[in-house]
Every structure is written in structure tokens, then in C-alpha cells.
Write a structure and sequence with these properties.
By secondary structure, this protein is of the alpha/beta class. The chain has two domains: about 15-55 and about 155-230 and about 325-365, FAD/NAD(P)-binding domain (3-Layer(bba) Sandwich), CATH 3.50.50.60; about 100-150 and about 230-320, D-Amino Acid Oxidase, Chain A, domain 2 (2-Layer Sandwich). It is built from nine helices and 17 strands. Bound molecules: flavin-adenine dinucleotide. Flavin-adenine dinucleotide binds near residues 54, 234 and 315.
Length: about 375
């Protein structure tokens, strides 16, 4: 890509990069970070529309699990990359999270099989007492098992993403642009031209599209739609009870929900499944509906009744969901060097490193990250 001539007056020439990443959520930031780790001389542009996405509202829980071998491999790989990043930069906002699981006996086999690394052990009476100490009145029930696993972490995903982008800004030849939605990508001189509002702003040899919930409306939206990508709301509530020091995460596996102590913010975060499909971030962030409140309060009443009356707000955004719940990471047919990195499926933080590595693999050796 170096030395490409544009044939335009210098002051109007679009900026020139080896790799352009469209979207600066955790997926795009991770792609740019791992690409630069693989080749320090790579000139990477990350360009973002400026609207904060799911990344900035994420619960940020990473417990490496997966219901298919492929997903388990991605989960384990991602956790390993996060562990390396934490070891290299201990100030990154990622902390270990002691994790307990409350699950009906019938689900135990499925849960054991889904673990991608961490060991699952019976928590025993000591574990039950510990949990009751931090979540008074938690109903463990004779028909349920209380289990414990290590290897989980909790991140402030928005801050983590800002750290990664700050690193990119410091790298000579690389840039991060914000507030500029990419409206078009088209072939140019063996690479691609990125247009924003009809104006050519950058050219790059290769392009990764990581536009999160905007995927259907943005570049290659028709491709994402044809691959079955849909948009779903992801929601969590804030419970007005201050978590004590050392409080663990509690996962209600049968309900696809969890309680996470967010001590810095002074509340427990309760993540649950909101079944609201086909909204659009272009209409602004979604609201937590009365139905969301009913669903969440119902799960809380069943497991920790004392918390059901403590709902003090919450957070929600959209995420891309694929039919098989696997990330959509593939080269666009007929567009060599353009790769989609979409489909967070509500787990886009914990799978971001594996998604980024796969995207870079598809782009070829020069942009391949280190192992
Ligand atoms: C409440 C909540 C809780 C969650 N909890 C967890 C959890 O515990 N664990 C977990 O793993 N995941 C969780 N998730 C999911 C996870 O946060 C997302 O999957 C992940 O953040 C998606 O990241 P992304 O970078 O793909 O997309 P986003 O974060 O949405 O970023 C996309 C970016 O692209 C930009 N963009 C869009 N279109 C364009 C364009 N045309 N040009 C330029 N830029 C563009 C947007 O402005 C945005 O900045 C949660 C999500 C929510 C909302």
C-alpha cells in the first residue's frame, strides 16, 4: 500500500493506511490492537461513527464456556489473550471474578460439558454459607446444585476499549477517527476507499467491518442480512444494594441470567435475557420495557427475593445475533481483503480476541497477530 498515488492534489488526497477498521467498539479496537502487535510498522486506521455501542454498556463478564466445541475453543482462546494483556498491562480494567453457579440437577451434565477450561466444583456447605453472607436469602433449594468455578473475569469494557484505542493513537502511522460514520467502501488502486458522507476520506489495503448493532445499516449491510444477522436487545438492571468486598458472581444457568457485583459503581448488576428483536440503534438506545422489568423481577423473586424490590435502573443496548449464535467472521465474497467481524450475540466482549484473530487470519499473513 505504501506509495500509492491518488492522482489528486495533496491537500485533498484521502489518508493512506494498510488496514482500516470500521467501528471502534471492543471488536474493532481488538482487531486494530492485535494487528499492530503482529506488525508494529502497520499503519492502522480505526474510524468510528461516534455513537457509543454495546461495548460502553457491557456487563463485561467473561466466564469461558461454550455450547459447541468451536465456541469453547474461541472462549478459551479469548480468555488466554485477555490474561496475557492483563499480565503485560496490570492497569487494564479487568479483574478476576470468583464465580458460583446455581443450576437444576438436570442441567449439570450440559454445564460441565460447556466449560472451556475452568474447573467446576461443588461449592458445598461452606460455599452456600458464603453466598448467603453476601446475598441474604438466596434460595439454593434441594433440587438445585451450587457449584463454583475459577477462571472468570470482569472488565469495564468501555474503559478497556479506550485503553486499546489510546495505544493505537500513540503508534506512529496509525490513527483513530471518531464522529465519522463510514457510508461507503469501494475498490481503489488495489485497495479500498472509505467514504464518509460522500467524501473519500481514507484508502486502505484491507478493511475490517466491526459495526456491531449498526451492521445491517452500514457498509456490507446487505451481506450481513443475507447471512441471517438480526438485531436483539441486551439488557441488565442495577440493584441498589452495595456489594461487599470479595462478593462473587452468581450465575443462574437455567435462566440465562447472572448477578455481578460492581463495587466501583456501588450496585449489583443483574443480567437477564430480553427477547426484543429487530430494533435499530439508529433510533437511539432501547429502553428497558415493563416486560423487561417483569422478566427480571420474576427471576430475582425465584432466587433472591430480597433483591426483586431493589431495582434502581439499568442499561440496555442492541447487539447483532446470528442464527447459530457464532460470531460472523468472514471475507466478503468478491471483495478480497474485506472481512466482516460481526455478531456479538450478547457475548461479544468475551469472544472479541478470538474474533479479531480470526479476522486477521482471513486477511493474510501481514496482518496476522502474534500467538
Ligand atoms: C447490557 C449489556 C450487557 C452485556 N454483557 C456482556 C457480558 O457480560 N459479556 C460479554 O461478553 N458480552 C456482553 N455484552 C455484549 C457485548 O457488550 C457486545 O457483544 C460487544 O460490546 C459488541 O462489540 P462491537 O465492537 O462488536 O459493537 P459495538 O460496541 O456496538 O461497537 C460498534 C461501533 O461501530 C460504530 N459504527 C457503527 N456503524 C459505523 C459506520 N458506518 N462507520 C463507522 N463506525 C460505525 C459504532 O459507533 C460503535 O462504536 C453485553 C451487552 C449489553 C448491551
Amino acid at each position: 500500500m505504501t506509495g500509492r498515488t491518488t492522482g489528486r492534489p495533496a491537500e485533498r488526497a484521502p489518508a493512506d493506511f494498510d488496514l482500516a477498521v470500521v467501528g471502534a467498539g471492543i471488536t474493532g479496537a481488538m482487531v486494530a490492537h492485535l494487528a499492530a502487535e503482529g506488525d508494529r510498522s502497520l499503519r492502522v486506521l480505526t474510524v468510528d461513527g461516534g455513537a457509543p455501542g454495546a461495548t460502553h454498556l457491557s456487563a463485561g463478564l467473561d466466564v469461558p464456556t461454550g455450547h459447541t466445541p468451536q465456541k469453547r475453543a474461541m472462549a478459551a482462546r479469548s480468555s488466554a489473550v485477555y490474561a496475557r494483556l492483563r499480565a503485560e498491562r496490570p492497569t487494564l480494567p479487568i479483574r478476576p471474578a470468583d464465580t458460583y453457579w446455581l443450576i437444576g440437577r438436570a442441567g449439570l451434565g450440559r454445564l460441565r460439558e460447556s466449560m472451556a477450561g475452568p474447573r467446576l466444583t461443588e461449592a458445598g456447605a461452606g460455599g452456600g454459607a458464603r453466598l448467603d453472607g453476601v446475598l441474604p436469602g438466596v434460595r439454593q433449594g434441594a433440587d438445585r446444585l451450587l457449584l463454583r468455578s475459577g477462571g472468570g473475569t470482569h472488565a469495564d469494557v468501555g474503559r478497556l476499549t479506550e485503553h486499546l484505542l489510546a495505544g493505537q493513537r500513540r503508534r506512529p502511522g496509525s490513527e483513530v477517527w471518531s464522529g465519522l460514520p463510514v457510508t461507503g467502501v469501494r475498490p481503489r488502486d488495489g485497495g479500498y476507499e472509505l467514504t464518509c458522507g460522500g467524501e473519500a476520506r481514507a484508502v486502505a489495503g484491507k478493511v475490517v467491518v466491526a459495526t456491531g448493532a449498526w451492521a445491517l445499516a452500514g457498509p456490507f449491510g446487505d451481506v450481513a442480512r443475507a447471512r441471517g444477522l438480526r438485531i436483539k436487545k441486551v439488557a441488565a438492571l442495577h440493584l441498589g444494594v452495595r456489594p461487599p468486598a470479595g462478593a462473587p458472581v452468581l450465575i443462574f444457568d437455567d435462566d440465562d441470567a447472572f448477578l455481578l457485583p460492581w463495587r466501583e459503581k456501588g450496585y449489583w448488576l443483574f443480567s437477564f435475557t430480553s427477547d426484543h428483536w429487530d430494533g435499530s440503534p439508529e433510533d437511539g438506545p432501547p429502553e428497558l420495557s415493563p416486560e423487561d422489568h417483569r422478566t427480571a423481577a420474576g427471576i430475582l423473586r425465584e432466587h433472591v427475593p430480597a433483591l426483586a424490590g431493589k431495582i434502581r435502573g439499568g442499561r440496555a443496548f442492541y447487539d447483532g445475533y446470528t442464527p447459530d449464535r457464532m460470531p460472523l467472521v468472514e471475507e466478503v465474497e468478491g471483495w478480497p481483503g474485506v472481512v466482516l467481524a460481526l455478531g456479538g450475540n450478547g457475548s461479544g466482549y468475551r469472544l472479541a480476541p478470538a474474533v479479531a484473530e480470526r479476522a486477521l487470519e482471513l486477511l493474510g499473513p501481514r496482518e496476522g497477530g502474534r500467538s
